Amino acid sequence: MKISVNTEIALTYLSTRKKQTLVASLGVMFGISMFIFMQSLMKGTNDYFEKMSFTNTPHIRLYSENKVADAHMLNSFLNDPSVKILTNPKQLKQTEGLTNPYGLIQQILKNKEVAAVTPQVTASVLYTSGSVQLTGNVAGVNIVEEDKMFDVQGNMVAGDFRDLNRVNSSILIGKGIADKLSLHVGDNITVTSASGNPTILRVIGIFATTIKQVDETKSYANISQAQNLLGKDRSYVTDIKINLRDYNNAPQVARELETITGYKAEDWVKANEQLKAAFKIRAIILNSVIGVLLLVAGFGIYNILNMTIYEKIKEIAILKAQGFSGPAVTSIFLQQAIYIGLMGGVVGVIVGFLITYGVSRVYIGAGTLKYLPMSFYTPHYIEAICFGVLTTIAAGFFPARKASRVDPVSIIRG
Amino acid sequence: MADTALKATNITKFFHDPVDMPVLKGISIEVKKGEFISIVGKSGCGKSTLLYVLSTMDTDYEGKLEINGELATGKTLNSLAALRNASIGFVFQFHYLLPDFTCLKNVMIPALKLGKYSYKEVEERAWEKLKMFGVEEQAKKRANKLSGGQQQRVAIARALINDPAIIMCDEPTGNLDSKNTNIVFDLFQKLSKEFNQTIITVTHDEDFAKRSDRIIEMADGEIRSHGH
Prior knowledge:
The complex is a heterodimer.
Chain A (H helix, E strand, L loop, with lengths): L4 H12 L1 H36 L6 E4 L3 E2 L3 H7 L12 E2 L8 H9 L4 E16 L2 E10 L1 H8 L1 H4 E4 L3 H4 L3 E5 H6 L7 E6 L5 E9 L4 H4 L2 E5 H8 L8 E6 L5 H12 L2 E4 H4 L1 H39 L1 H9 L4 H35 L2 E4 L2 E3 L6 H27 L3 H6 L1
Parallel strand pairs in A: 5-10, 7-9
Antiparallel strand pairs in A: 1-11, 1-12, 2-3, 4-5, 4-8, 4-11, 6-9, 7-10, 8-9, 13-14
Chain B lengths: L3 E12 L5 E12 L3 E6 L5 H8 L7 E6 L2 E2 L5 H11 E4 L11 H12 L4 H14 L15 H13 L5 E5 L7 H18 L2 E5 L3 H5 L3 E6 L2 E4 L3
Parallel strand pairs in B: 3-8, 3-9, 6-7, 7-8
Antiparallel strand pairs in B: 1-2, 1-4, 4-5, 9-10
């Protein structure tokens, strides 16, 4: 390959000043590797918490919500030109549960985004064992579908969750309930709902999520069992849980489902607003740290190039006398910045990967989190190189422009 | 006029700092191809200023400048750079080689910039020039490892690499001892006589000036004698 004179001069300047080139590249390298490390840590953590939130939240939950009274009916009843306004409107109780839930499910399945749909009956209950009582709620579900959506198996600490379908009058309880009521697999527990009779159920399994509050209140039962507890019929369903192919589309799909079904559809983003806030805060912290790092690296390059230009001002004048135009001189110095950026960038990517890998092997053992969640996400590496090169170009631009404006006459005449 | 290498008409230039002061007052000169011209005069008479105007590097003047029949006045800085690259060679008082490069590279750079010949050909031509001036043994050395006289010879080789229409020299021997001055002068004479090379030098050195084809004398921003 034939390289241009400008490139040749740029490379010669870099190679005759190895130490400074090295220092400048090291600056870029640190910036880039930290960029990758922090991005990987953030994405890893975010992914982890997102995944965690999906162990007990569906992408979209469809349920019936009480509505605030409005003057709509009154206005149409009175049929006069005035408009009535309700002061102090109250919540109107809607029919409990969803009407025709299985028809709704068929409708929801028509949406191409939807991957899985399962109905659920939620019942607030009292758990009783001996003389001790605990409040909590039973989720009446099809446990096999529930497992597909939320990985029940992964949380099991005792028993087999499939027994929920095989054993009559059975229940799967959280570890917190089991501990508080000293229950083991095979023991009996009395469950009472507000509207039904006390029912004795057999514990067929115990699960533990990482969320203490869930473990101390939640239990799973067969959907018909939950309907029995509430004294309701087979068509009584309180929630429909929907998982999508891509959970990022949840807010939009939720709105579509709301218009189709007329029920409230809550997406996971709304259900986990604190999670989103945490993501945002982390992103701000991280981006400011990265910004500072790149800024420092950029200043390093700026300084070194500026010094080079002062040192080489006579040579620049000579080059210009010999017919190097302003843009050619800019190119010589900008190229130096770019090569420094590329060198630092490539090494930085490797070092960044190694740091990320190293940290992902560090055992921290907090709760179910054994190792720091790190993500190895290729776009981070591409972004890092782009940012690195952009920074160096920005840092190199001003010195290079200064070099291009050197007036050869004043320098040569002294 | 095919045999005119450089023609300047009514060149006027002011220094603006600290007050407007004329340095060149309506200077006209014409240089024929193959002429070896010395511009002499006392310090501050404007002879170097004139050279830099003629060299196209200084564009802050009034008047008209033609190089090789081509009007240089009013051209953009970038096209002037290209013009210098192709048509003008420079030799300065302080050799001004690029110290990070070998002598050979120093000679090659203007030709590589011109891009008329391939890298191989440029390298051969550079060798030839260095040989012509007897510094081919230093070719692979870094420029800052050479003696002053050797550096000046490399600089002259560099000035010649693109076969320029004109070589311009600012005190080419000002920094050299008499032995090296003679070597450099002989080189210029040889270039002028054998290769029909146009040379314009600004010099303090009277012996040097006397041996050139024509002496232009300057005083107070004006030409006293064209030496015809």
